[in-house]
Prior knowledge:
- By secondary structure, the protein is an alpha/beta fold.
- The chain has a single domain, classed as Rossmann fold (3-Layer(aba) Sandwich), CATH 3.40.50.720.
- It is built from seven helices and four strands; from the N terminus they run βαβαβααβααα.
- It has helices at residues 20-47, 68-91, 110-116, 128-140, 150-153, 156-162, 164-172, and strands at residues 2-5, 51-55, 98-104, 145-148.
- β1 (2-5), α1 (20-47) and β2 form a beta-alpha-beta unit.
- The chain is globular, with a radius of gyration of 18 Å.
- Mean pLDDT is 89; it is low at 188-192.
Amino acid sequence: MLLQLNHIKPYFQLFEDTDLKTLREVVDVDLYSYITITKLLLQELIARDATLVAVSSAAGKIGVPYAAVYSASKHALHGFFDSLRLEVYMTHPSSKMSITTCVIGNIDTESAKRVTAGKVRHPTRASPDDTALAIVTGALRKQREVYFPRLEVTPIPYLRAFFPSLTDYLIVNSMEAPPNRDSSLPSGAGAN
């Protein structure tokens, strides 16, 4: 048995410009729905030695401009499934249930192109078919994590850990800059 959780609330805008309703929807879809479905099916998954696949994002490993709440929900998703994996190992040692978390980068879907249009400079995007194959292959191999596209997303946690300023620079420079809003701040605000 395989359960794949792969749903997303399209969202890509500055946190400062995001209304509270949208913030709640992003967390509900991108985090809470994964947790709820898992809770409802967990005993069955354990009993059947199932594979649970949680499709996440590179934004779950590193912060991304225009995606603060999405990134927060995906970071939480990784923490949840990493913790759940350990709980299942501890409480059901005879179960062969596995949890695979997928760290997915830039994929060539209409939704991704639409929400990032004018905000992200993408030299390339992986095909949805290749992405699906990587996810299924990783699940069948019972990998803990699947990184795809591999060359794009695998280095991200290491770059962040060892070269945080360089990583920030690269991410910011892969984005189209929003209008400068400093003129609207009181004197001295926003300075670090």
